[in-house]
């Protein structure tokens, strides 16, 4: 078997709207193409031996063991690889369950789809599954050592990518509340919410966390001084920088026992407590120097270690932290007890699990000696043997929830301390013999104030009630149901996406909001271009959603981006589907129009239930998407007598209709006329039906988002099919004696739409410079030729510079084949170079002619036109002539001539 391609999806996608994290592996079965599993000797036995846990997979039989039943009876290897990849992730602790396997149009090539938790692990699992299955086919077995290595590698991927228990608690709470989140590109930052409503976090620091508070909390001595000055009980201590000062500092704090710790340490690193001799003090000093140049020497206070978590000025959780320890059973040595304790599945490396495995250091051996033990000692049954002096969870400690026990005066004191330091989230380390009594009564002290405190001990204590501390953070960041999202309006279709996206963004700007939008021409925020290029995928969407100034997102979603990576966001407020027509078929395993429609329907299906899917009622494939989405439906139509729209309106629905020459919104008994088509520049004076349809879709999408008719109308009137607003979309230039039109039509549907306008040109000649992308099917090029023969009087057939793997000249030959099939006597010539073809057309144009250029490079075509002395870029409108609009919006040719 051979893996041809692996793609990672991160949002609603062709395979699943709900399962956003999927790996799509294109797998060639090669010599196994016609060999089901039951015909491979020993395969079933080898698979069960390697992965007996596959017994838990139900598969299509719908019962435990159903998948293995399929393997025994005979199933194809792509299906088996899917299940193995899922099971490998399960064995590594990543719980996944969704998978799909489909054969492509290429015999023996399958698309294997598997869910993932971690991207790298998911991709690795796919490759490992192929290795495992191939090994069993070839050798009848998969070596146990290789399987163990695979699982360990998967665990390593998962651990390396882990955001940590605190961040994961915040993410889970955000997801529970429907608040979107995404990781940012640096410093382990995550973003909660979108656009102008976003908040950012790093661990448990927020973008509201004051830098002065963080700096103060990180300087433990300064913290202690400012708290002492405010009457807060803190340990007596001092800071030294040299070993020569250690003896004097010990005398200053009142003698032994003492604590020595680094000035700017964290997670318990370099701290030694309960020091009772000079030798211990010297060793502790050297350990602290490994972490910090400056060293704190403090009096040691007897008591239990507590962490009090304060969020937004309120105590939300209290935990008693118990140092790493083992409990004797009267039989096992301390070393054996440590091994047994570390086998607890709740213990893991670092911060990955509820508890951390116990590891010994210098202080551990000193502590054992002080208790009269060595690692070989066998402590009596029930005896606690402490292994760490500090109680940090990161060193193997455990936590006991004490939230309900803290004394009200201690609550007041903790909240006051955090305000003094100036933090929105803080963890106070308090040493006291009894947290249920005021500190002043039991000689308790506040040892430290920590910025970015860990949440693990509170969300998953070893004993007691888990506390939803992440909920308190969400309440602080998004109080009183403050919005976390911005409106997202996404547009897809075979043709008209970019124009509709730009028009919709332009309409929305009439509300005075900052609009970010993505198109095939670039990514824009407000009036400014952020990045040029074809930006219709999830990465471009993230640029808009991550920008803190954007109030509305209008996103063009092309087939390629959805297919390669998914939408890139989980839900939209409005999803617009303009049309579905034959284009890009045979690419990316989308071989039929029905498959293309299923792909485009992702945009409609990914709309919130209270949002709107804006669908073209005149396209039966698009209209059928109403059955697949849970959102409200809004139709647009060029046919005022549409039976579908009439029934929809009778049921209380809303629609945009082209009627009596007007673009109108119809709801119930009301018809809200927005504007006459002839007064909308984009429609070329009402003579471009496909542009009228685009304007209907954009107007309706804005209307269902509560943009008023009074705001939509000026948006339509001031938006033009110009180089500045819609480059390559019906750009018409007056060159004096003749005109030139540039449009990026490149498929049969867009040729037909363009023809509805070009046929109205009755003076001079209609000259076409035509072609198409080289990765289209042969029959598509023939169709382009047939359509061109009906549109143009003279045709120049060219090819793109990038033939996309096609032999140069073959596309041109196919187009000519189509031309001659329709009109054997057609006037045409083949000039493969696009620049030469454009110049030839412009050179030969008789007076009054229209040269229509369908270029690969819009910018290049426009430059070639402009060097010839453009008198003006035209927007044909009817301000002086009355037009008797026909039902489809095409004006009589005599009127067209007058206007042009």
TrEMBL record:
Domain annotation ATP-grasp: ranges: 224-478
GO MF annotation terms: ATP binding; cyanophycin synthetase activity (L-arginine-adding); cyanophycin synthetase activity (L-aspartate-adding); metal ion binding
Spans through the membrane: none
Pfam families assigned to the protein according to its UniProt record, in alphabetical order: Cyanophycin_syn, Mur_ligase_C, Mur_ligase_M, RimK
Classification via InterPro entries: ATP-grasp, ATP-grasp_RimK-type, Cya_phycin_syn, Cyanophycin_syn_N, Mur-like_cat_sf, Mur_ligase_C, Mur_ligase_C_dom_sf, Mur_ligase_cen
EC number: 6.3.2.29, 6.3.2.30
Alphabetical UniProt keywords: ATP-binding, Ligase, Nucleotide-binding
Record bears the keyword Cell inner membrane: no
Region (Disordered): 879-900
Reactions catalysed according to its record: [L-4-(L-arginin-2-N-yl)aspartate](n) + L-aspartate + ATP = [L-4-(L-arginin-2-N-yl)aspartate](n)-L-aspartate + ADP + phosphate + H(+); [L-4-(L-arginin-2-N-yl)aspartate](n)-L-aspartate + L-arginine + ATP = [L-4-(L-arginin-2-N-yl)aspartate](n+1) + ADP + phosphate + H(+)
Function description: Catalyzes the ATP-dependent polymerization of arginine and aspartate to multi-L-arginyl-poly-L-aspartic acid (cyanophycin; a water-insoluble reserve polymer).
Protein name (database record): Cyanophycin synthetase
């Amino acid at each position: 078997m051979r893996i041809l391609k692996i793609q990672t999806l991160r949002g609603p996608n062709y395979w699943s709207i709900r399962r956003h994290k999927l790996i799509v592996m294109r797998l060639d079965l090669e010599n196994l193409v016609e060999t089901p599993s039951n015909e491979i000797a020993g395969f079933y036995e080898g698979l069960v031996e390697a992965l007996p846990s596959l017994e838990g997979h139900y598969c299509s039989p719908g019962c435990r063991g159903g998948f293995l039943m399929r393997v025994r009876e005979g199933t194809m290897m792509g299906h088996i690889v899917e299940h193995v990849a899922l099971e490998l992730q399960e064995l590594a602790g990543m719980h996944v369950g969704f998978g799909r396997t489909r054969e492509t149009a290429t015999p023996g090539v399958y698309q294997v789809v598997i869910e993932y938790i971690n991207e790298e692990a998911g991709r690795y699992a796919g490759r490992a599954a192929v290795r495992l299955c191939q090994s069993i086919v070839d050798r009848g077995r998969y070596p146990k050592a290789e399987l163990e290595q695979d699982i360990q590698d998967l665990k390593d991927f998962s651990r390396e990518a882990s955001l940590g228990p605190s961040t994961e608690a915040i993410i889970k709470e955000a997801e529970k509340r429907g608040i979107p989140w995404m990781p940012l590109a640096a410093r382990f930052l995550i973003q909660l919410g979108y656009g102008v409503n976003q908040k950012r976090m790093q661990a448990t620091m927020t973008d509201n966390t004051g830098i002065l508070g963080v700096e103060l909390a990180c300087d433990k001595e300064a913290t202690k001084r400012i708290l002492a000055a405010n009457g807060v009980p803190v340990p007596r201590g001092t800071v030294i920088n040299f070993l020569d000062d250690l003896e004097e500092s010990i005398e200053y704090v009142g003698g032994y026992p003492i604590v020595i710790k680094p000035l700017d340490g964290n997670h318990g690193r370099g701290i030694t407590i309960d020091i009772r001799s000079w030798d211990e003090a010297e060793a502790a000093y050297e350990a602290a120097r490994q972490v910090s140049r400056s060293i704190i020497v403090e009096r040691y206070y007897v008591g239990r270690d507590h962490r009090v978590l304060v969020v937004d000025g309120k105590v939300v959780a209290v935990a008693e932290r118990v140092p790493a320890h083992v409990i004797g059973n009267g039989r096992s040595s301390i070393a054996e007890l440590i091994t047994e304790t570390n086998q607890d599945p709740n213990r893991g490396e670092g911060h990955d699990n509820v508890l951390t495995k116990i590891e010994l250091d210098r202080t551990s051996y000193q502590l054992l000696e002080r208790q009269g033990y060595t690692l070989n000692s066998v402590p009596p049954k029930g005896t606690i043997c402490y292994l760490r002096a500090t109680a940090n969870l990161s060193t193997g400690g455990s936590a006991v929830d004490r939230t309900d026990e803290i004394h009200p005066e201690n609550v007041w004191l903790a909240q006051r301390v955090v305000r003094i330091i100036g933090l929105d989230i803080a963890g106070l380390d308090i040493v006291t013999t009894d947290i249920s009594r005021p500190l002043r009564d039991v000689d308790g002290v506040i040892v430290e104030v920590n910025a970015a405190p860990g949440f693990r001990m509170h969300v998953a204590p070893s004993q007691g009630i888990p506390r939803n501390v992440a909920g308190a953070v969400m309440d602080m960041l998004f109080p009183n149901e403050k919005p976390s999202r911005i409106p997202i309006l996404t547009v897809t279709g075979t043709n008209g996406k970019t124009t509709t996206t730009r028009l919709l963004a332009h309409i929305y700007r009439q509300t005075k909001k900052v609009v970010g939008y993505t198109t095939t021409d670039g990514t824009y925020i407000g009036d400014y271009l952020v990045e040029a290029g074809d930006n219709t995928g999830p990465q471009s969407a993230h640029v808009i959603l991550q920008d803190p100034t954007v109030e509305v997102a209008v996103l063009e979603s092309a087939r390629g981006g959805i297919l390669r990576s998914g939408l890139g966001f989980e839900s939209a407020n409005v999803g617009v589907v303009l049309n579905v027509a034959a284009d890009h078929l045979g690419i990316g395993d989308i071989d039929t129009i029905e498959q293309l429609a299923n792909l485009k329907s992702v945009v409609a299906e990914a709309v919130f239930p209270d949002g709107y899917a804006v669908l073209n009622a005149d396209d039966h494939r698009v209209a059928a998407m109403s059955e697949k989405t849970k959102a409200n439906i809004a139709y647009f139509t060029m046919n005022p007598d549409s039976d579908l729209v009439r029934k929809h309106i009778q049921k209380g629905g809303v629609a945009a209709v082209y009627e009596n020459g007007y673009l109108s919104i119809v709801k119930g008994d009301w018809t809200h006329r927005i504007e006459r088509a002839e007064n909308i520049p984009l429609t070329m004076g009402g003579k471009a039906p496909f542009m009228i349809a685009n304007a209907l879709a954009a107007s309706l999408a804005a209307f269902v988002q509560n943009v008023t008719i009074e705001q939509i109308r000026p948006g339509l009137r001031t938006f033009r099919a110009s180089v500045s607003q819609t480059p390559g979309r019906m750009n018409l230039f007056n060159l004096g004696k003749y005109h030139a039109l540039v449009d990026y039509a490149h498929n049969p549907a867009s040729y037909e739409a363009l023809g509805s306008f070009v046929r109205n040109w009755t003076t001079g000649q209609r000259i076409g410079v035509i072609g198409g992308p080289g990765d289209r099917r042969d029959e598509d090029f023939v169709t382009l030729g047939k359509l061109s023969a009906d549109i143009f009087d003279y045709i120049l057939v060219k090819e793109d510079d990038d033939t996309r793997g096609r032999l140069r000249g073959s596309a041109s030959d196919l187009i000519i084949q189509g031309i001659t099939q329709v009109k054997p006597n057609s006037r045409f010539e083949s000039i493969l170079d696009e620049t030469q073809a454009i110049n030839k057309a412009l050179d030969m144009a008789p007076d009054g002619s229209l040269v229509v250029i369908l270029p690969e490079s819009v910018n290049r075509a426009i430059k070639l036109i402009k060097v010839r002395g453009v008198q003006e870029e035209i927007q044909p409108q009817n301000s002086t002539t009355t037009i008797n609009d026909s039902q489809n919006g095409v004006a009589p040719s005599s009127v067209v001539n007058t206007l042009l």
